[in-house]
């Protein structure tokens, strides 16, 4: 949608917002978040019995975001004390919090148990022992899922965001040790309730081949547990990872179709064994919030190297979006104040960090740029703010939430005072 020459993000004039709040600026559209959540309600939550969606809060977390997820009655996945604390501060029902992570500390586990977190997803033996120690001392029962590594050999996404292969730091391998000691120990432990299994195969996936392959492997374990221990799990969490298009021209994932194919396979498999189909959980992060975010920057210096390339530099970069330098991620962009002009010039958009690799977009077509133009980078809602850093002591931008044409700051821009806020001066020598 656009009026005059400005780029409108849903009903928000991005130039106006940039002028009002300054740049760089993260803009998050509650309308798009809602569209995505409502879509999940239609194709999953309301379509199947006994299913649940958890929002993977690592994609974008703030108190306001947790409040939206709470209001929409989804559960939430947290992976650290910080994410957990944020959810609790948003008054999230602890019962709907799932606590993941491959190296939860004793303090984090105790904090989760004290808050009454519904389910802890146990990743390894050390953690298991810590949980048993804490719940036994407190004389309570804790629901757990066991995180499994399905050991897939090929997963079609960036190697840094694959998690379901054999060589991974996440979860238990499915082997004799798991069966004879880990599971046996859990089943013998009065303080633990084994709710079921969890696995997550990777992120930014576009087809369901890996989901189906992983399910097959996990299902064998479910069957084994039923026949060897007469134990039927009540929950199976199949992870997140649903991909979104970042570049123009890429078709969005038909999540309804992907989920339907997965659910058909799951229903079919469980109909063949003497137990009820457990509750199926998915935990999308990027898919809910990625397309709901954009980042607006101001163009500063423009440098042309004759017969080679023109660099246009923005007032942010890898400190607010590490994904291009970390994963080679590709984004699309527009000039917010020249939205109707032809994109007929090549530019490379450079960040302002002291790092040659701080290139946000390489050789993209834009209208002729002038210093002072506003650049909008699309689909930055997931893993941009949440992975932001203070490299070069750059300030982390504000996050503005827009809904029905109204805007509200949900995370304040950092200040220089924030930057030095935890610094302590040297002790004076006497
Ligand atoms: N559940 C578990 C256990 C996960 O490890 C993840 C992501 C998710 C759910 C959510 O995945 P999603 O639906 O958002 O793809 N920083 C990387 C992504 C790392 C994802 C890690 N785990 C990126 O910027 O692409």
The overall pLDDT, averaged over residues, is 96
Structural class: alpha/beta
The CATH level-2 architecture of the largest domain is identified as Alpha-Beta Barrel
What's the CATH superfamily of the largest domain, by name?
A: Alanine racemase
Spatial separation of the terminal alpha carbons: 66 Å
Helical fraction: 25-40%
Which cofactor or ligand species appear? ligand LLP
User: What is the CATH third-level topology name of the largest domain?
Assistant: TIM Barrel
Number of strands: 21
Low-confidence stretches: none
Shape: globular
Radius of gyration: 23 Å
- Give the percentage of residues in beta strands: 15-25%
The CATH class label of the largest domain is Alpha Beta
Description of the molecule:
This protein has about 425 residues and is α/β, with parallel strands linked by helices. It has two domains: about 1-25 and about 290-420, Lyase, Ornithine Decarboxylase, Chain A, domain 1 (Beta Barrel), CATH 2.40.37; about 30-290, Alpha-Beta Barrel (TIM Barrel), CATH 3.20.20.10. The chain is about 30% helix and about 25% strand. It is built from twelve helices and 21 strands. The strands form three sheets. Strands 4, 14, 15, 16, 17, 18, 19, 20 and 21 form a nine-stranded mixed β-sheet that branches. It has an eight-stranded parallel β-barrel with strand order 5-6-7-8-9-11-12-13, surrounded by five helices. Strands 1-2-3 form a three-stranded antiparallel β-sheet. It starts with a strand and ends in a 10-residue tail after the last helix. The relative contact order is 0.15. The mean pLDDT is about 95. Ligand LLP binds next to α10 and α11.
